[in-house]
Amino acid sequence: MSLPKTRFLDSTLRSPLMHLPVRTAVFELEKARILFAPGSKLTPEQLREAGPVTDIVAPSLMHTAGMKAAAAAHPDARLRGPVGVREKHPELTWHGILGVDAWPFESELALIPLPGMPSLAESAFLHHASKALYLTDMVFNISEPKGLAAWAFFRMCGTYRRFAVSKLFLRYAKDRPALEAAAARIAALDFQHVIPSHGEAVLNDGKSRLLAAFRERRLVA
Predict the structure, then answer these.
(1) In the chain, which end has fewer C-beta atoms inside a 10 angstrom radius, N or C?
(2) Tens of pLDDT, residues 91-105
(3) Where does 6-216 sit in CATH, by number?
(4) pLDDT digits (tens, 9 = 90+) for 105-160
């Protein structure tokens, strides 16, 4: 997969029960180089392959396990993460909280918080140069699940061998109207591709397929 101003570093969380692919992105912005959602299984060599990183971003509380290794590989980078991340990882120095502190990259990498889910505190991101929307655990798109319990997990999520909004993700919603408002905001954005953290990218027709997935879960009309 090739998208403008973007590189990908893929890894896999492996256990006998399930193999979970994890996608990490590197965004080359005009005055920054962002390592986005570093996977916990990336090697130091892979992390250094990202180049001279200025910022490392954890897009949700469920995607923070790779931040320590990423910060060690890029000690001068600024760390940014969701509300609650300072309490979860007090050993790290955090330079910005998503949705609270100023986000300086809005013109190139738009931040879209997904409110009403405090235990996840997930945000979506729109990379304008590639017209690609990045979602963390909201959607899955794993066509070939691997592991003894993969079929059970993804069936429970309603995402078995298909692109869909995870039912498990929706269980975290404490304020459903707030999440629906965020989905409506996403629906109004200009994007072509959807890049999930777990599974295959949905290229070219990403917006139409995401809107269909939203309608299936009654997130938008």
Answers:
(1) C
(2) 999 999 999 999 999
(3) 3.60.15.10
(4) 999 999 999 999 999 999 999 999 999 999 999 999 999 999 989 999 999 999 99
Name 165's bridge partners.
139
pLDDT by residue (tens digit) across 56-65? 999 999 999 9
Residues 145/199, Cβ–Cβ less than 8 Å? no
| Distances, alpha carbon 39 to alpha carbons 12, 70, 85, in Å | 8, 9, 16
From CA 65, how far away is CA 31, in angstroms rounded? 26
Q: Comparing C-alpha atoms, which of 53, 17, 197, 218 is closest to residue 124?
A: 197
Domain borders along the chain are 6-216
Q: Could you count the other beta carbons within 10 Å of the beta carbon of residue 31?
A: 8
pLDDT at 186: 98
- Quick one: three-class SS letters along 140-199? EECCCCECCCHHHHHHHHCCCCCCEECHHHHHCCCCHHHHHHHHHHHHCCCCCEEEECCE
